[in-house]
Amino acid sequence: MQVVLVPHRLSKYLDKTNFSRRNLKAPAQPGAFACATIGTMKSCLRCHQSFEITDSDRSFYSELDVPEPTQCPQCREIRRLIWRNERTLYKRKCDATGKEIISVFHNDAPFPVYDNEYWYGDGWSALEYGRAYDFSRPFFEQFQELMHAVPQLSRSAINNQNCNYVNQCGWCKDCYLIFEADGNRSCMYGNNIYDSNDCMDCLHITKCELSYECIDCRNCFNLKFSQDCKSCSDSWFLKNCINCTNCFGCVNLRNKQYYIMNKPYSKEEYENIMAKIPRATIQDIEKLRLQFAEHVKTFPQKYIHGVQNEDSSGDYLNNTQRCTDCYDVFDSQDCRYVFNSRNCKMVHDMTVFGAAQGAQFCYEVHEIGDSVQKIKFSDQIWGGCAEITYSKLCMQSSKNLFGCVGLKKAQYCILNKQYTKDEWEALVPQIIEAMKNEGTWGEFFPHTMSPFAYNETVAQEYYPLEKEAAVAAGYGWRDPDAQEFRPATAELPKTIQEANDAILNEVFKCTECGKNYRLIAAELSFYKRAALPVPERCHNCRHRHRQSFRNPRTLYARACDKCSTAIQTTYAPSRLEPIYCEKCYLEAVD
Questions:
Q1: What residues make up the domain containing 121?
Q2: What's the predicted TM-score (pTM) here?
Q3: CA-to-CA distance for 64 and 363, rounded, in angstroms?
Q4: What b-and-e string marks burial along 248-284, b requiring 16 or more CB atoms within 10 Å of the CB?
Q5: How confident is the model at residue 249 (pLDDT cuts 50, 70, 90)?
Q6: How far is C-alpha 216 from the geometric centre of its chain's CA atoms?
Q7: Which of 127, 473, 534, 555 could form a disulfide with 33 if both were Cys (CB 3.0 to 4.6 A apart)?
Q8: Under DSSP, is residue 334 helix (H, G, I), strand (E, B) or coil?
């Protein structure tokens, strides 16, 4: 596990809307990484901090025929994140069928919400909501009216079986409260889970099985409380280990077996020691966490999480070339300010997706992918779409759309109204010119148009705000339901041996946030098989705790603590563990 927690928070809040900066030529914090490419400095219209426009940026904007941004990269990221509700689910009725559904939209949403099956069906058409463009009114005013009229998809979930309480999830079976996940079986309480089976309380794992409280792990089996590991099994509390089996409390090991706190033992010695380590209660586990954290501090860490990256900066990168200031990006080239995406080429300012077929030549977009091209200023566009601008929830090979919502297999539409090719090509430039005169062309949707409250969205995870600050900045806010904060009906069992099926009828109270939570049968079965205590935090607080173990999206200029080579890293200078360049790190691991 990572040792020194660097919480995802804003370091200061100025003028009610001023967030701290990342990657500035003149950094707001000493030591923050400054872009290497010389460019022009601009002042962000949102937070008033300086940010840089490089020559390569200008080349990209020229290629896509868009103006330079008026907001800094971080404010642009937040503006997209407030359109993404991953983890906040509500019970409500489908506005088409009347049946009870699970949705990311509260009952008070200003638009109809349809169950997924009905939304994708042939019982309605978004073209029915088409309207002519009115040049006497602002574009965003007309687009918002259309967005509030067209039915929205209850949640992003496709091709799942017995997975009612999931979101941003596809091709999963028998899963519960997992988010941003694909191809899983019997997984619970996790985010960014892919092709995994029987895993619980994990974050950013791929092809894992029977794993618990793991972060950024791949191809692991029966692994617990571990981070940044590959091909490890039957182990507890590992950090940066590869191909290790039957290890406990180890860091930076390769191809090892029967190690405890980085010391080798015989099989018999290992088993005898492990039998004496208390792990039955929450208090036992927390004590082990703290001991392991102190142990990790003494070991060097590689400056970046990831492998096979060329001329790239950011963190959690794999197989990238010329990707600048990108995070959680894989198999991508020539990107900048891209987050949680894969298979992207020539994309700037994108948050989430890409998919197997990827995205190309896109700018200022959220949740787009699966073979899309030239998507600009849009939200939820996927499935072979191209040449789409200022649109939302359009898919299935739609092309040449401007200001549209909910269209499938459509072409040459404006505000959902059908046009001929010649009419469309004549009218769109006129609308763009009108938007330029309004001063609204070339930016993502205004934050005031987001269908979610700030604290419902992923923005609250990476840039958390208190209610007063969020409201002062112009964001929506949703107060918690008092009904979810009632007294517990029973005390948690101290050990899993004390738990029986009657516990499934009880309501517990999170020791961190006070919110109520319950257990499900599959969850209790997992704890029993793994001999783990029942957690005393709700699933959201457990998720926040895991998130805090990952490095924040802030780059710092540092020197390798061994050879003094200049590095750009998300490990802040205040961190206690040694940070090495890749060469020195590879020489140091055992």
A1: 90-154+392-444
A2: 0.91
A3: 8
A4: bbbbbbeebbbbbebeebeeeebeeeeeeeebeebee
A5: very high
A6: 13
A7: 555
A8: coil
